[in-house]
UniProtKB/TrEMBL annotation, chain A:
One of its GO terms (molecular function) is lyase activity. This is Formate hydrogenlyase subunit 4. GO terms for cellular component: plasma membrane. It holds the Pfam family NADHdh. The lineage of its organism: Bacteria, Bacillati, Bacillota, Clostridia, Lachnospirales. InterPro entries: ComplexI_Subunit1, NADH_UbQ_OxRdtase_su1/FPO. The keyword Transmembrane helix applies. It is found in: Membrane. The chain crosses the membrane at residues 6-23, 61-86, 92-117, 129-148, 168-185, 225-246, 252-274, 286-306. Its main location: membrane.
From TrEMBL, chain B:
This is Hydrogenase-4 component E. GO terms for cellular component: plasma membrane. The chain crosses the membrane at residues 6-22, 29-46, 52-71, 91-108, 114-132, 162-186. It is found in: Cell membrane. Keywords: Cell membrane, Membrane, Transmembrane, Transmembrane helix. It is a multi-pass membrane protein. InterPro entries: HyfE-like.
Automatic annotation (TrEMBL), chain C:
It comes from the Bacteria. Residues 291-521 form the NADH-quinone oxidoreductase subunit D domain. Residues 31-140 form the NADH:ubiquinone oxidoreductase 30kDa subunit domain. This is Ni,Fe-hydrogenase III large subunit.
Length: 307, 203, 521
């Protein structure tokens, strides 16, 4: 793998809390108050690293190893996604690697939720898997769509091909909309889950993390930020990849990088607007939303398969 | 441009097949008709023929202004504003709509104009809404979606007389007005627009 | 039926019974242990009274008083009996009387005869045994030890397969008041909910017995921070009723303005809370902003954000100038305009309506059987508002109609709170019309001779509040009892959540928004 890949993924890892901080700041501005500074997630992580760990008496070895596994999986995830530069070797970017790394994340999170032996962890785990049951087909269908459109299973190659031109814009838009709903479901955003709630009974993702403290919680928070950033980077690069740098020259790289940041900010604003103007759906109505998204993906595949 | 509009039309069709709230349905219908109207203008611009413009203007006037106005007036009287028990429930309607659409794309593989396929998609989705719902308002919206599909179909055919276009659109206008009035009266008599109650009338 | 007619009808049915009318709308009936059940039954059956509460006083013997109210005509009927150590249970006859009887047993040490539910209410398992705080022999200020071994408090459980218990609280993930909720859930739908409170029991009634009458309004305002003004008003009304004191019109108008301001900021917070709990953050923050505007207005005109220490018996403790009046009108206009805009957003948002419609329904039958009052009762088609039935200050001319809804769900409670806010704006403006000049501070020292008693009743933000006082020596009250609205209304929540899924519980709880601290006192 070329060195630029490694550098850009490291930048992605370092910048993930910054993206989340900007998202929170955008939401605050939309709602009319000042909000926390953009660097706040970094301060929170530093604070968590300096605190001690408290383990529940009922927990097993899972609670000791799961945070490290989760962090490792999300860091690896950051290395599979293209950011601004596409070289000639296509590195780690196989779609199935991405999908299964995310599955590892989810699996370990649910295990930790169950391991704490509190009622909320179990409830949060069951709800998370319930939503996943409806969201995973969408993920697979979108992957299939990308394959049919570009002819490859490697996300970096897909980005390169798509930056050359898109054959079927109608299908592309529909698959993009489907993928956006998938991002909302997998990363616990409104309308599927409320990431800012303080009520344990309504939590889906946070409920599984209620019993963690100190270093463990810091690992999980960082992996959540990374997962959101990686999902958005996937969207940006698979569906709106114009301006990607195909050669390693300085000016191309710079424009590609700036374009990437701009596209991410636009996506973050869209996310912020959606979170502000909508309420969270009832738990058992979320499948309706995800079924609609499934239908979009199916239509997109149908359109592109036959042309 | 054309592709984006086609995507919007398909998206609105799928959303209307799946969701139950009535004001979402009217909004979706409005957006869909707006997209079709813009599509007519784009086609007219690209091909330079004037009758596309006429269809576009007529569609915009009737389907984005007049018909939603009728629908809103009869909706205001309704006490319940969403479909309570549709015949095909919840997320199944979205999935079935999706499967139908995929099947349509497979069956109509030979046709190379996008709009025929989109038109048939709208026809089928509209028919799905007509059949699978109980409230008269959603059935009426299904009928209107089928009309949109017809307009798309005739857009993709090259020579269609202007007269026939105007006749079709006027017919749609009249039928919608009649249906809106009927819904108003159904609501007044039965205090609901659930068409199950209409079977009480026979005996 | 008028009060005199009731008295005659009772005497006709039970000859030889001692009755007395005090303070123009309180009828005291002196029964004894044997015929208390019969008389109470006859009250419910023949005269259609409502059970409002039951409390105990200690004189030579223990005196139990059962409070009944007539909502149509606006009077109280109090049935009293004396007892040495036994309390005749009205459970099964009067709704929710079990709560009152368990409280009397815990605080006074009487035994309940014929009880169905016999658990401790106030004293949690760690209290010392045989300690009865409200008895006269428990000295004021004595400290209580914590026990090391405790017995188990029995909750109702679901025992078949698939059901599990979720205990929530009293320490919550968010910073809210302490209360313990025990859910029995089968999957996600809630099968049963049991609420256990009294974590904030501060013994306020005992404190009231040891505070001078002129300073008591400060204590009463702190029973529940959300209803400070209403509690101060109830206390003022009680003293003025006992002394038969008449206030000038402009002070009455100012009191109404303050009461309605409190209603406004409370209901704005409530509505904002409902939006917040479903994740609809934009209106939630904006409603909170409007509520803050009202709080700042309250501080500008009286010096206290919660309007504390303003309403005192027989007077007013703060000066309201014409500049204040203009300030109020201007702020109200600004708030009202933005309020209408926000309402449109929430009532048209499909995702929000989807959550609150059809959630947390309390049927009319259940609301009636629990004797719920306030907004939550009016949402379930009970037409009762204290401001209309027992009009005080200038509400007789202001309040013409009662806002009610039929279904009793969270959305209906939301709509009623909106209607009450709009009413509040109207009442404030109408009341301010009666304030033509500056209203000066006027406060006098109060001295009441011992042995005088009376009841006062006020519509607080949560519902109907009844305060009873009997004066004693040294210008103090011998017994002050508060029948708070939350005490009766909390049970309604256990019925509202049946059949809902667990994630919808915070929404139901917030739509009720009952106060923990006024329940616990």
């Amino acid at each position: 793998m070329s060195i630029i890949y490694i550098i850009q993924s490291l930048l992605l890892i370092a910048g993930a809390p910054l993206f989340v901080g900007s998202l929170r700041r955008l939401k605050a501005v939309l709602r009319g108050y000042k909000g926390a500074p953009v660097l706040q997630p970094y301060y929170e992580l530093m604070k968590l690293f300096s605190k001690g760990r408290v383990l529940s008496g009922n927990s097993s070895f899972i609670t000791s190893i799961a945070p490290a596994i989760v962090l490792a999986a999300s860091i690896l995830l950051a290395f599979t996604v293209p950011v601004a530069y596409i070289g000639s070797d296509y590195g780690l970017g196989n779609i199935f690697v991405i999908i299964f790394l995310m599955a590892i994340l989810k699996f370990m999170t649910v295990l930790i939720g169950l391991d704490s032996a509190s009622a909320f962890g179990g409830m949060g785990g069951s709800r998370e898997l319930f939503i996943s049951m409806f969201a995973e087909p969408i993920g697979f269908l979108t992957a299939a769509f990308l394959y049919f459109e570009a002819g490859s299973f490697n996300i970096i190659e897909i980005t390169y091909i798509n930056s050359r031109g898109i054959a079927e814009p109608a299908a592309h838009i529909m698959a993009a909309v489907a993928f956006l709903l998938w991002i909302a479901a997998e990363n616990t955003r409104i309308p599927v889950d409320n990431p800012e709630t303080h009520l344990e009974l309504t939590m889906i993702h946070e409920a599984m993390l209620l019993d963690l403290s100190g270093r463990d919680l810091a690992y999980f928070e960082l992996s959540t930020y990374l997962k959101l950033t990686v999902s958005m980077a996937l969207f940006v690069n698979a569906f709106i990849p114009f301006g990607i740098a195909a050669s390693a020259s300085g000016s191309f790289l710079l424009t590609a990088f700036v374009l990437f940041v701009v596209k991410m900010l636009i996506m973050l604003s869209m996310l912020a607007v959606t979170e502000t103007i909508m309420a969270k759906f009832r738990l058992f109505r979320a499948p309706e939303l995800l079924a609609t998204s499934f239908c979009f993906a199916l239509t997109a595949i149908a359109i592109v398969y036959l042309h | 441009m054309l592709e984006i509009l086609t995507a919007v039309i398909l998206i609105t069709a799928i959303i209307m097949a799946g969701f139950r709230r009535i004001n979402l349905l009217t909004k979706g219908f409005r957006i869909q008709s707006l997209a079709i109207g813009l599509l007519c203008f784009a086609l007219g611009y690209l091909s330079g023929e004037s009758h596309y413009y006429v269809i576009g203007v007529l569609t915009l006037i009737t389907k984005t202004v007049l018909i939603p106005h009728f629908m809103n007036r009869s909706i205001k009287e309704l006490s319940a504003n969403r479909e309570m028990d549709p015949i095909i429930n919840g997320w199944w309607s979205s999935v079935i709509a999706g499967i139908f659409i995929a099947v349509i794309y497979v069956v109509m593989e030979g046709f190379n104009s996008d709009f025929i396929i989109a038109g048939v998609v709208l026809l089928v989705t509209g028919a799905l809404m007509l059949v699978a719902r109980k409230k008269a308002i959603t059935q009426m919206t299904g009928f209107l979606v089928m009309e949109n599909g017809l307009v798309l179909l005739e857009l993709s055919m090259i020579k269609m007389g202007l007269l026939i276009d105007i006749l079709i659109i006027l017919e749609v206008l009249l039928i919608s007005a009649i249906m809106a009035i009927m819904i108003f009266y159904i609501n007044k008599v039965f205090h609901s627009v659930n068409t199950d109650y209409l079977s009480n009338l026979k005996d | 039926m008028r009060l005199q007619e009731i008295k005659d009808a009772i005497l006709a049915g039970n000859p030889g019974l001692n009755t007395e009318i005090k303070n123009k709308n309180e009828l005291f009936v002196y029964a004894d242990k044997d015929n208390i059940i019969k008389i109470t039954e006859c009250m419910f059956r023949d005269f259609r009274m409502y059970f409002a509460g039951e409390f105990c006083m200690q004189e030579d013997m223990f005196v139990i008083s059962v409070i009944l109210t007539s909502r149509k005509q606006g009077y109280f009927v109090i049935i009293r009996y004396e007892t040495e150590g036994e309390l005749i249970s009205l459970q099964g006859l009067a709704n929710q009387s079990g709560l009152f009887e368990r409280e009397i047993r815990d605080l006074f040490g009487l035994e309940i005869v014929g009880a169905i539910d016999n658990r401790h209410l106030v004293k949690h398992e760690e209290w010392e045994k045989d300690v009865y705080p409200l008895c006269k022999d428990f000295t004021y200020g004595r400290k209580i030890r914590n026990l090391n071994e405790t017995e188990v408090y029995r909750f109702k459980e679901v025992t078949n397969g698939g059901g599990y218990q979720i205990p929530v609280g009293p320490v919550h993930a968010g910073i809210i008041e302490p209360g313990h909720f025990r859910f029995s859930a089968i999957g996600e739908p809630i099968e049963n909910l049991e609420i256990r409170l009294m974590y904030k029991h501060r013994g306020i009634e005992k404190i009231c017995e040891n505070t001078d009458i002129n300073r008591l309004n400060l204590i009463l305002e702190r029973v529940s921070g959300e209803s400070s003004v209403a509690y101060a008003e109830a206390y003022a009304l009680l003293i003025e009723k006992i002394l038969d004191y008449n206030l000038p019109e402009d002070i009455k108008a100012v009191r109404v303005v303050l009461l309605e301001l409190e209603r406004t900021y409370n209901y704005l917070d409530d509505i904002g809370g409902i939006c917040l709990d479903v994740g609809f953050s934009y209106p939630a923050k904006k409603f909170a902003y409007l509520s803050e505007m009202i709080h700042q207005l309250c501080e500008r005109i009286t010096g206290s954000r919660f309007l504390r220490n303003v309403i005192v018996p027989c007077g007013l403790n703060s000066k309201i100038t014409l500049a204040n009046k203009a300030d109020i009108l201007e702020t109200l206009q600004m708030v009202e305009k933005r309020f209408d805009g926000l309402l449109d957003i929430t009532l048209n948002a499909v995702s929000f309506l989807d959550r609150v419609e059809d959630t947390g329904i309390v049927e009319n039958k259940i609301a009636k059987s629990l004797n719920m009052t306030g907004v939550v009762a009016r949402a379930s088609d009970i037409h009762y508002d204290v401001r209309k039935s027992f009009p005080y200050e200038i509400y007789q001319s202001l309040k013409k109609e009662i806002n009610f809804e039929k279904t009793g769900g969270a959305f209906e409670r939301y709509k009623i709170k909106i209607a009450e806010i709009k009413d509040a704006f109207l009442f404030i403006r109408q009341a301010l019309n009666l304030v033509e000049n500056d209203v000066n501070k006027c406060r006098e020292k109060i001295n009441i001779e011992p042995g005088v008693e009376g009841f006062s009743i006020v519509e607080t933000v949560k519902g109907e509040l009844i305060v009873y006082g009997k004066t004693g020596l040294n210008n103090r009250f011998e017994r002050l009892y508060m029948r708070t609205p939350s005490f009766m209304n909390w049970e309604g929540l256990t019925f509202a959540v049946l059949g809902e899924i667990v994630p919808d519980f915070p929404l139901c709880n917030k739509s009720f928004n009952m106060s923990y601290s006024e329940n616990d006192r």
